[in-house]
Amino acid sequence: MSQQIYINGEYFSRADAKVSVYDHGLLYGDGVFEGMRIYSGKVFRLEEHLIRLFESAAAIALPIGMTIQQLAKDTDECVAKNGLDDGYIRLVVTRGCGPLGLDPYKCSDPQIIIIADKISLYPAEMYENGLELITAATIRNHPAALSSRVKSLNYLNNIMAKMEGLRAGCVEALMLNIKGEVAECTGDNIFIVKNGKLSTPPIDAGILEGITRNAVLELAKQAGIETSEHPMTRHDIFIADECFLTGSAAEVIAAVKLDGRTIGDGKPGPITTKLNEAFRKLVRS
Ligand code: PMP
User: Fold this and answer.
1) What is the pLDDT of residues 234-257, one digit of tens each?
2) What are the DSSP E strand ranges found in 128-241?
3) CA–CA distance from 80 to each of 70, 84, 86, 89, 95 (Å)?
4) ipTM of the predicted structure?
5) Of 188, 209, 252, best ligand 1 pocket probe by most atoms within 8 Å of the beta carbon
6) For residues 210 and 246, what is the distance between their CA atoms, to the nearest angstrom?
7) Where do the domains of the chain lie?
8) Is the beta carbon of 184 within 6 A of some atom in ligand 1?
9) In CATH, what number does 124-284 get?
10) Does the domain formed by 5-117 have CATH 1.10.10.10?
11) Inter-helix orientation angle 46-59/68-81, to 10°
């Protein structure tokens, strides 16, 4: 089945799916997006993703021009049209075309784009053995400048940190906030386990409120694991028993080294494995 890309309610082949070079999404990163997984033909937590999308859009005063229910219907339709059982959805809303200046009020045609595709983020071997992280020198954007809860098209901050990781041979990098506290990774949230308790940085550490993060916190509570959201430093990760990352694309993946220090015994730990199994069950339920 050939790929069908949705733009404003119409479908195009990959070669014909285009936006203007005057689109402020391209010119200024003026827009918002979501990344979601398709499991067994169904988008995982579609409504939560769309609520986050609409909230991101509201925060930047970007009118989407349709309801959450309509966009949910179109997203489901796009998944069906592409015949994907398992895959990934990238939903993008740009400010649309305008003059070359910044003025968003001169843009009147937001572009709603839905791309359904296959995905493989990290090598399978890393899901078995865990991955290694470095701490990026690039500090996570200050949430008072642009709330990290807005999933905007401006990912340069994370991209700079990702480059640092890749240059050091790591597929992910840890980002700290301006206070030196742990924020998140470039495209994933981070968790640690210490003495059987699960913790993750709070939203006001300047992180994206991950849908997978929330799902894992719920699963941990259901499993009777004590959870907390509190500020942490790199030191907390160095001395953690276990560490793992969460994200729609990444799912749940253990991190076994940070800046050359082995975390715990250097293997995906029992709580990580338990939560990973529970997550895999949940997404297929
Ligand atoms: N943090 C950042 C910066 C991200 O880009 C992502 C991926 N969307 C996440 C965390 C994880 O969020 P989610 O679980 O909603 O995919």
Assistant:
1) 999 999 999 999 999 999 999 999
2) 131-135, 172-176, 182-185, 189-194, 197-200, 227-229
3) 15, 7, 11, 12, 27
4) 0.99
5) 188
6) 8
7) 5-117, 124-284
8) yes
9) 3.20.10.10
10) no
11) 130
